[in-house]
Write a structure and sequence with these properties.
about 10% strand; binds glutathione; 4-stranded mixed sheet; Glutathione-S-Trfase_C_sf; globular; alpha+beta; Glutaredoxin; single chain; Glutathione_S-Trfase_N; glutathione transferase activity; Glutathione S-transferase Yfyf (Class Pi), Chain A, domain 2
């Protein structure tokens, strides 16, 4: 009895259920926890047999999870089972007010935060579809020619359209001083967009180098401010932060402008 009680006391309330070894969409959730110093367990990366545990938890959840990330919340059982929430933007919507990552006292602002986070996540999905335009279950090499075509429109039109949109949002949010998308302090729209920009730069460095001068708020004020954020600084330079590799964001030079 005693050891069990001890385990319950030390177990973090939140468990992130995601694939091991890649930042992926799990990173959007990690950044929310890291920015706010919230304890969490990254099951697949930190626990013994974590990968198996992660697979079992997402399958056994009710409703089961179609695709990770998912969030398990201890102490919030739902219909007799541990609460498991799926979909990145949905998890962030749940955590936002609890972690102080939406403006306080403005019930509408949180929907703007969520709308912007979803737009950043759309950008992330489009970047993924560049290297997998035909079939998510086949290798890049099997769809390389189509990928090259998609890359052309993505780098020429879609990247500038997303950059331009977020630049406008930053300049119109006067309270944010070019540093925050909504209000005057950090929200999960900021952390999410920041990670997408990191991924886009990793995948399309030449395109970003060409465009970054045009979107000065985005590429100076905004990016630099997040890097220096009190809660994030240590994490972002630590080896706990997983590097990009061949996940959602991939660097294939032939797809970069
Ligand atoms: N819209 C979902 C997308 C989830 C997703 O595509 N997850 C990837 C990993 S980042 C996956 O494992 N997908 C498997 C699949 O779609 O079959 C979200 O934002 O959570």
């Amino acid at each position: 009895m005693a050891p069990r009680q001890k385990k319950q006391r030390t177990e973090p309330k939140y468990e992130l259920l995601y694939h091991p070894e890649i930042p992926g969409r799990g990173e959007y959730i990690r950044l929310a926890f890291e920015a706010t110093g919230t304890p969490y367990s990254d099951v697949s990366n930190q626990e013994k047999n974590g990968y198996k545990k992660f697979q079992n938890l997402i399958t056994d959840a009710n409703p089961p999870v179609f695709a990770p990330p998912a969030l398990l919340v201890h102490g919030e059982d739902y219909h007799g089972k541990p609460l498991v929430i799926s979909q990145t933007s949905n998890i962030l919507l749940y955590l936002g007010p609890k972690l102080g990552l939406v403006p306080e006292g403005d019930k509408i602002a949180r929907y703007h935060v969520n709308g912007l986070a979803i737009t950043a996540l759309d950008f992330c999905s489009e970047a993924h579809d560049v290297h997998h335009p035909i079939d998510i279950e086949q290798y890049y090499e099997q769809q390389k020619e189509e990928a090259k075509k998609k890359a052309k429109s993505f780098t020429k039109r879609r990247i500038p359209k997303f950059f331009g949109y977020f630049e406008t949002v930053l300049s119109e949010n006067k309270e944010g001083d070019g540093k925050y998308l909504v209000g005057k302090s950090l929200t999960y729209a900021d952390t999410t967009l920041w990670q997408v920009l990191e991924g886009i730069e990793f995948a399309f460095p030449k395109t970003v180098a060409k465009l970054s001068k045009t979107y000065s708020l985005l590429f100076s004020n905004f990016r630099e401010n997040i890097k220096e954020h009190e809660g994030l600084k240590e994490y972002l330079t630590s080896d706990r932060r997983l590097p990009f590799s061949i996940g959602i964001f991939r660097h294939y030079p032939e797809l970069d402008a």
